[in-house]
Amino acid sequence: MGRRARVLLAVLAAGLMAGCDGLDMEQADVCQALLPALETALDDPGRHAIDPHVTADPDHPRTVVLHYRLSGEPATADHWIRCTFAGSGFDSDRRVLTAVETDRRGRLSDLRLHMVQRFWLGSFLAQSAVRGAGDTARGPPAWAYALQQLLNALPVGALYGLLAMAFTLVFAVIGRINMAFGEVAMVGAYAALTLVHLLTARAGLGQGGLGLAVTVAAAAAYAAGAAALLGWTTQRLVFRPLAGRAGQAALIATVGLALVLQEGIRLSQGADDHWLQPVLNRVLVVARAEGFTVTITPFKLALLATVAGLYVLLLRFVVRGPFGRAWRAVADDRRMAALVGLDVDRTVGRAFALGAGLAGLAGVVLTLHYGGVSFHMGTLLGFKALTAAVLGGFGSLPGAMVGGLLIGLLETLWSAYFHIAYRDLAVFAVLALVLVFRPRGLLGGLLGGVLGGQGGGRAEM
């Protein structure tokens, strides 16, 4: 392992462990949801809670403390609500309240706690009240809101960028689009979910600290490895027999492969959605402005550092490494590459394995960021990543990265400023416009002569 790879792994491990013992934001949201109910019941109609903020209790595991003050009180006033939960880390009951204590009421009785959970936390009006409690009359400042959306777009762009690079790696060497990469990402997501459950249930990991970091790293490695093996196998069993066939036989085969993977997961894992609690979600404040706080989480920081490192390593690997030279030679002229002694089949198989491994990592990102996994999630994910690859320029790895970031940015900003129901329509409208006005994408054809793409122009660096 090279020095740069060791440095990257050290930074990633430090980023993972830095957020492992922090505040669990989902538990913080549950505790903050109690605030309107408990304050409304104290017969202070002229006062309301202001400046709420939640901290972890270092002396009591699975406990968070909500601090606030009431309007009209001095800035030094401090009221608190202490919430204790049944679990932490990846535990399924980590959002279940077991005790609530306040500075003004003391510890809630079992009956009061049951009533609060049953009739307040479960109601839509309670959630609406919490969402509106911190709003100002004018709304957040435009620059702060825009900055928050840019930060929100980074994980989405990283997700699409990984998948877009997978599309590009394979398209360059076979000249066909593998429509099953979305389903490969879905398989990677299920692999990560399975390993997390095994490690937490059997080995007792995932509760926080080093155990949580090990669980996340092992899940990512396992998902990438399983997806890479799947990619190499499908190349041998599906694409290799179709090599040299005219028409769209390979494209049709990828559609069939996607259906097989989708139905295989549905039959083996069930049709229900599976959920995994988000990790490393402690809030880090970036900026404050007029009652609005711009935040980011350790998970996003660790994700960005990891993906940026993967981009750098992949580009260096493809530009200077022996596989990269073979990959570009096969992409430029398959027959000439075979004539000079390159093993074309092995190069294509490695490209499939590497692309599928990136798709598996994209599935891990999706699982850890959103928490939900379903057998049908790969279809739309694959189409959006394909749009990112087309936008950046098929055959260009830097273009795939840029296209993923742009699609993630478009999707996030559209959801923030326009009606979310038309978000996917906007993304696919971009695909149509690019195909009409710039079929080679934004960077297709622009980087070939500078960074290594020659010949037919399908592989551009």
Compact description:
With 461 residues, the chain is an alpha+beta fold.
Structure description:
This protein is of the alpha+beta class and 461 residues long. The protein folds into two domains: 24-135; 143-451, ABC transporter involved in vitamin B12 uptake, BtuC, CATH 1.10.3470. The protein contains 17 helices and nine strands. It has helices at residues 3-18, 25-33, 35-40, 110-121, 124-133, 142-174, 181-202, 210-239, 249-269, 298-320, 322-332, 334-339, 344-370, 377-392, 397-417, 423-437, 448-451, and strands at residues 49-56, 63-70, 79-85, 97-102, 106-107, 274-275, 284-289, 292-296, 372-373. The strands form three sheets. A five-stranded antiparallel sheet has the order 1-2-3-4-5. Helix 15 crosses helix 16. The two termini are 24 Å apart. The relative contact order is 0.14.
